Amino acid sequence: MQARGAVSIPRAWPNWLPAFGFAALLGLALFGMELLEPFFRWVEPDARSVIYARASFVDLLGRHLLVVGAAGAVTVCLGLIAGIAVTRRYGRDFLPLAGQLASIGQTFPPVAVLALAVPALGFGTPAIIVALMLYGLLPILRNTLAGLDGVDPALKEAAIAMGMTPRQRLWRVELPLAAPVILAGVRTSITINIATAALGATVGASNLGDPIIAGIINANMAYVIQGALLIALLALTVDSLFDLLEQQLRHRPTD
Amino acid sequence: MIELNKVSKRFNEALAVNDISLRVEKGSFCALVGTSGCGKSTTLRMINRLIPHSDGEILIDGQPIEQLDPVKLRRRIGYVIQSTGLFPHWSVARNIALVPRLLKWPAEKIDARVEELMALLGLPFDEFVGKYPHQLSGGQAQRVGVARALAADPDILLMDEPFGALDPLTRDKLQEELARLQARLHKTVVFVTHDMDEALKLADHLVVMREGRIVQQGSPLTLLRHPADPFVESLLGGLERGLKQAGLTRVKEHMTSLGPQVPAHSRIPGDFTLRQGLSMMLRDHTERLTVVDASDVPIGELSLRRLIKESQSERGTPRAG
Amino acid sequence: MVIVNAGERHPSPNVVLIALGIVMLCAVWLLGVVSVAPNRIVPGTSYPLVAALGMPGALLVTLLLGAMTALALRPARIHYLAMLLLLVMVLLLMPFGLMVAGHFLIDPALPQARLGLGAAYWTLSFVLLLYLVELRLRLAIKRLPTALLLVAVALAWWLCARLWLDDLALVQEFQARRGAFFSAVGQHVLLVGVAVGSSLLLGLALALAMHRFHRLRKAGFALLNFLQTIPSLALFGLLLAPLAWLGANVAWLGNLGVSGIGNTPALIALIAYSLLPIVRNTFIALQQVRPDTLEAATAMGMRGHQRFWQVRFPLALPVLIEGVRITTVQAVGLTAVAALIGAGGLGTFIFQGLGQAAMDMVLLGALPIVAMALIADAALGALADITRHGGAS
């Protein structure tokens, strides 16, 4: 990559522990919930079953991840493309509007967006994916704009003066320098979407929110705890993975 | 060679640069000097088309720049700015290698070039190659900036107050090294600065600008001897003009052969400036200095009386610097 | 530097407004304008523009939107003002369009029949909002006049709904549960208020402590970040079980009203979520005051409390209010989720509506929540602006 790239600077190892820990706990909770049966029996002595069994936890997790992942993939692409487009010369007219839209849109509570999506799109997983896409787009768009805007104008000019083409400037200078801010936007978006997707259980999608909703409806605290535990661990695992990614980025000095 | 013919630049209605004409010969070092907002940076940035000019024509080696592809044009012009503009996410080596990479040089050639440039700029290869800009001092960063500008061996070098943010000692050192580099590389340099001493030290063609116009241009000695108006004179330091002029010539150009008298006690190397010689006379309370060569062998004498006579007889006859 | 070509006579077309205009024209012609349902559960049939408004109505709408788009081709201040006028006209005419549609499409013989807003109406409202934002930027209209304009339009809509729009499903839904609606709004505001108020007090104390004691800093932020990461539904769920157990097994807590379901877990969770933005902003506000400013204050002979109240506090206030704004907007949404665990508030309508597949009831819950969030955002944003002196942050 660089001249005699062998000369490397000492870099501290990122802290893998939280990510590993949460992932391990998530795995344990997924496959070992039965081991806790005595505890849940103690919580709900009168219930017919104390381990949620309408679907396997792995299934629920898979569906949860699918929804969040599908929405996330689309939003990252769309948000980046939109953010880049409105900061180029041809799209600059749309920049103020996009900025305002991103900040006004985040005022809308996610649960309201989900609720409004149902009348428009109907019940079920596709509606949730669309709602998550709409809502998750905004933090990514906003941070992409902020990140690209935050690149030192002197650097942008230096890039022009060195004879870089617009495309080279974007890919080699602007995006790498904006990456930490953009990544923070993706992190916010995904974190919100994991939480909002869980609410999707109330609009007919089946995912990790299911045990909680079923537990509330049937007054079965054991179900509630199981669902809540899994969602919390999922959110913490994903969040600590993002933390790792951010540390990786930060270790390449970018300020 | 760079030529500007009746070039103007308007921002909205305001004239930032007003009808200037300028010719920078191949291999010469031209300094644009003036107070802030006088249009010197704008002039510089029009040359590599960072800013399009509004009127007139700018020629590089006889070709109007608007006929050239801006990207290709910029790749053959080195550019150095005050804030260095080093890319913080790239190592020193990668920063220096930028333009050669853009030009798709083969990897071995780039590696060799980076090593050569780092040696040229006094950056020990093993120590600096993997460092990132935030690990460098201001002076080191600016050395990298100059190395980056020189990487693809451009004929032309544009420098926008490159040493403006450095402390005086580092600045002096880098100025000297730039002068040394220029003596070796003979680039066509356009150098923007508000520091007249810096301009006098480095340039062989001075352009004084004010409110978008060129007030006076010529060799440093011409300007020192015949400032066109009070503004140029004040920029040149008013009363200290004489000393500045003395700073431009070497002791050995003014020495006389050793006379029959007892040689003066104080000795000065012939490569020192006349200004340093005068300073030494004041320090040592003497009117005469013995001029020595590099191996401390006396080669002549510097006498205050003679210097004054010399400048009286020379008044009015410009002399090449 | 932005180089504006100062040719006033031939400004280049405003592509943003043209694009928005075309989107609106496409929406009204291609999407369903209204839907008609025989009762509140059955999904309605959707009707296009001409069927809903008749040919004259359709032409009027097209004319208005077309004029807005055409004016954007030659943007000048006067044209922007004209566009603003047209925009307000369209906004005011929207409820009348519903009346006309009701007149055409609702069979008076069916008392249960109701009119729903179609996709075109939603799209139109949303795009008009964007249009207003863009016009506001172009005309440099301040926050307050824009807010007043929107309030006036909302009032006009409200009046139309009260007086003439009995056919509208949303209105019927509202009239059917007027009492429950107002008490839900009250509960919602109360929950948000109590949560934000207590987290403000707690957060200030915590931020001051973290400012003073360095050791608390890392642990404090780690804990608050951790809490913020846990999804709301999960946190509510995790609080349910232990609180239910406490309520049932510790008599005095039970007497205080602590139980798994209801306000207690909701408030605990809301406060937990609200702490991070408040603490973070207070902390930043305290840290950002430059040491030399404080040193100058000391050098001028200010005492400790004078320095706090005259220098530190005024400089920190806007950032603190910004934190309250973020917290409040977030709490409005989270309180809606809290309805799932029986905390009451507008979320009740959303989840009941979803359970019964009664979409109008969902709207009755969701729309006021959105309005509440927007109002809180605008009001606290304005307050932060007022406390900011001379644009300093």
Automatic annotation (TrEMBL), chain B:
SUPFAM superfamilies: CBS-domain pair, P-loop containing nucleoside triphosphate hydrolases. Residues 2-236 form the ABC transporter domain. The keyword ATP-binding applies. It holds the Pfam family ABC_tran. Keywords: ATP-binding, Nucleotide-binding, Transport. It comes from the Bacteria. GO terms for molecular function: ATP binding. Belongs to the ABC transporter superfamily. This is ABC transporter ATP-binding protein. It comes from Vreelandella malpeensis. The lineage of its organism: Bacteria, Pseudomonadati, Pseudomonadota, Gammaproteobacteria, Oceanospirillales.
